[in-house]
Amino acid sequence: GPMTIEAESADQLYSPFHMLASGLAFCSYSVLASWASHANLDSDDIVIEVTWKFVDDPHRIGDIAMKVEWPSLPPERTTAAERVAAMCAVHATLTHSPSIATTIVTAPGAPASRAAAPAAAVLTGV
Fold first, then answer.
1. Taking the model in full, what pTM does it have?
2. 101: which residues sit within 8 A by CB, 6+ positions away?
3. 55 falls in which pLDDT band (50, 70, 90)?
4. SS3 call for 37
């Protein structure tokens, strides 16, 4: 089904931390829904809530908690569902830190070096 992101209030901004959490939630939902389809389970009632806590030195997310509410899941399938949720590639990325390379390019049109990445995100400031 469609993804809905809920904020605590209408004034709350959608921050990069919300993007990280919603990426984890959507990825987890995707693998759970796929598994449910193959296991003949209903996944229409899955609700995923991701919360996080900050730590310092350096300031960052230190803890992430993901709660999957799935009322129609048979209790005997809970352990399997937990294993499936952990198969999400975003989950794996967060539990096995990737290396990050930052390149600053000051000349327009100058090629930025990229380590053979098949996927990329481009954010352009105004």
1. 0.81
2. 113, 115
3. very high
4. helix
